Amino acid sequence: MVNIYNDANSFGDLREPYQRHRFEIAAPDARYTLNGLPPGDYALLIYHDENRNGELDQNFVGIPREPIALSNNYLPKGPPSFSRASISVESGGAVHQELTLSRLMGERGLFSVGMGTIVRSSPYVDSDGARLLAIPTLVYFGERLQVAGTVANYNLTGNDRTRLTLVGELRLGAYDEDDSPMLAGMGDRKTTVFGGVALSSRLFWGINSSVAYTHDLLGRVDAGRARVGLSKGFQFGTWRVSPSVSATWLDGTLANYEYGVPLHQATEWRPAYRISDAVNYQGSISVIYEITPSWLAVISTSYETLDRKIANSPLIDRRNMTSGFFALTYTF
User: Fold this and answer.
1) DSSP string of 137-164?
2) What is the dihedral of CA 27, 62, 80, 139, to 10 degrees?
3) pTM, whole model, 2 decimals?
4) Nearest by Cα to 186 from 286, 257, 234
5) Contact yes or no for 297/273 (Cβ under 8 A)
6) What pLDDT, in 10s, does the model give residues 142-173?
7) CB of 48 closer than 8 Å to CB of 2
8) Which pLDDT tens digit goes with each residue over 38-58?
9) How many CB atoms lie within 10 A of CB 200?
10) Which of 110, 177, 213, 258 is deepest in the core (most CB within 10 A)?
């Protein structure tokens, strides 16, 4: 099967090609000819349709299961770049490509290692610092398990359009009591791990949706949260840019743990304050830059607006928070 792309975004998702062509395999080194392409820039995806279903079989996160080759023998370890795979077709001219099929994930999946940094601003009164955590970065993409920095997913069921997964995520402690005089005596809010289930779907125009519920697995908060979000990816040369919007519901226990003031910790200058369930809103942009097919830089920034009930807490003096993540990884 030969898929021809003339659009960077479609090629970045390996979906909706400009043209499809089917050939019976005549020999391991056979020649195949494509005629009648208008002049322009194109990228080719060639794959062996092992089960003869006419489609490129992909796993839950869109990584091809069947042997593939891309034009220029480009073999990316992340979202493919149209600019690296593109070939120019001129009127009356011919372009020759000698391509070798291979399984992108191999037998064990794709492994990446590197270093990453998480940073998050603080909304607390008189706190002029930011929460900062440097971590070794492990990224793994397998048939069912995917690990990316502080997030892990295990696919239970589904296909390349809709999937149900188990999810786990590291949640940084909201504050240490020495971050601000207002927090003195409140105790440190500890980093923990939230886990639960998520349903992800691919909608129209390449938009992805997700709905998830997670709960504190370590019992440090014994609380839960739910999240709904929409995202879409765009390809610009060797840059993959993915904006997203989301809403996150915090149950009252979690909202009070991070933003409330219990009665026994109230003082003359810090009155008791209790919060019911709250909803925060977030806009994010994630960027993957392909330095080489094996070296990737990952950058993510987000802007979060706190629920008014949270913003009215005596601990809080700003309603908005920013956070970011940066990692440099090498894929084997």
Assistant:
1) EEEEE-SSEEEETTEEEEEEEE-SSEEE
2) -120
3) 0.82
4) 257
5) no
6) 878 888 878 999 999 987 788 999 999 988 88
7) no
8) 999 999 999 999 988 888 887
9) 22
10) 258
